[in-house]
Amino acid sequence: MKLPFKPLAAAASIALLVATTPLSADDHGVDPVEFVNADADRTARVAQQLWELAELGYLETETSALLQSELSGEGFRIEQGIADIPTAFLAEWGEGGPVIAIMAEMDALPGINQSASPLREIVEGKNAGHACGHNLFGAGSLVAAIAIKKWLEETGTPGRIRFYGTPAEEGGSGKVYMTRAGMFDDVDVAIHWHADDENSAAAQTSLANRSAKFRFKGISAHAAGAPERGRSALDGAEAMNMMANMLHEHMPQDARMHYVITSGGNAPNVVPDFAEVFYYVRHPDPDGVEEIWTRLEAAARGGAMGTGTEVEWEVIHGNNPLLVNETLAKVMDQKLRQVGGVEYTDEERAWAEQLQESLGDSAKPLESAGEIGDYGKSLGYGSTDVGDVSWATPTVGVRTATWVPGTSAHSWQAVAASGHSIGHKGTQVAAKSMTLMAVELFTNPELRAAARAEFDAARGDDYEYRSLLGDRAPPLDYRK
């Protein structure tokens, strides 16, 4: 099914009529940003605790418990284990009025770790790290939600602030299961943010994607003494990979496909009877993912047929593309500019300069951390389970400079900065921007109406949500 993308002229014209309030202190004399400033120590403390835990997708037991504890201590009502995911939760404060949601990711990435040093320094015995900054994501969203709660309480404004603890973004699609379970159906607007090496609220879309583990089964034998008796599962996987690599030449320009062999045998002199290869397929449109996926499945069957092995596969995750809402994105851009970027101390600048030596030509001027990127709409080549949320309710995001300029996500340099004061400062920028955005949404019904009009026009009258995961249950063991 092709997701509808319709002209947004009507919604855009509505958006132009929406007046936003440049907030410092509001009509009640309450400055919501001051609540975030006052909680800077909590931002750093929680971010660092999550960084040290570095728990993988669906295994974020201590991480989830920490976030819940902080929120319950502030009077939030907690609902645990939502969407059949033990580490997922919902925390809410307030009554009546609109429901504004803030999402919080929390999982780390496997196979990478680093100390908070600007030089490569592996932490022995640690098999994961926050190379995508989800420790910052969780902490920043937490502090923003608490600041918004305090503002609602101080001003007596009707409304509910809702915090979603969303596990397993990295290949686990936690938010997809939550969307599929209807957890966002009564939300007026959802807000998210992400760690980055720059500050931007530009309207960037994402690629739809799907992943699966392809498992080949063969017959083991002595590789020298009785090779004719063996049927190599690894041969089946490699034959599939060869055909998939040929497929790259015949994919659309904006499509992506990548894989890792997660199991291929243990000894060269034993014909492996099991092999597993883990694939991702991405495309701007879900139909494009489906088309490439059909061909990938054919390559898997061909690899098995040609090597005398068997193959089966398990879909692990799948995300719809991000449906940007420019009505909201333009207002978030205003709020980010009101907050401003990140300023380094002399010590932080020296640390950043030392780390930049490892970035080579990718390094960017350190001053760019204090700047705000131009607003615009573009296609992003990553994928996120926020995409599914954005088809359930109007959604807006922001990215802030938590990493040294020039740093790539999923790198040791990102792990280092995510455990450093540079990361904490960028997190504060995100928390302030989201807080201001939420206050605007609570107090500006015209903005909410305009965002909903754009959202409804983009989805179309005949839109029906479809998950790229099908009806499978959350893969709670995919990182074990």
Question: What key attributes describe this structure?
Answer:
alpha/beta, 480 residues, Amidohydrolase, disordered N terminus, 6-stranded mixed β-sheet, 2 domains, Aminopeptidase, 38% helix, Alpha-Beta Plaits, 4-stranded antiparallel β-sheet
Task: Compile the SSE list and pairings.
Blueprint: H1 9-16, H2 32-38, H3 40-53, H4 61-72, E1 77-80, E2 89-95, E3 99-105, E4 109-110, E5 128-129, H5 134-155, E6 159-166, H6 174-180, E7 189-196, E8 203-205, E9 208-217, H7 233-247, E10 256-263, E11 274-283, H8 286-307, E12 310-319, H9 326-339, H10 346-356, E13 377-379, H11 386-390, E14 395-401, H12 412-418, H13 421-443, H14 445-459
Parallel strand pairs: 3-6, 3-7, 7-14, 8-13
Antiparallel strand pairs: 1-2, 2-6, 4-5, 9-11, 9-12, 10-11
GO molecular function, one term: dipeptidase activity
Domain Peptidase M20 dimerisation: 211-301
InterPro entries: Amidohydrolase, Aminobenzoyl-glu_utiliz_pB, Peptidase_M20, Peptidase_M20/M20A_hydrolases, Peptidase_M20_dimer
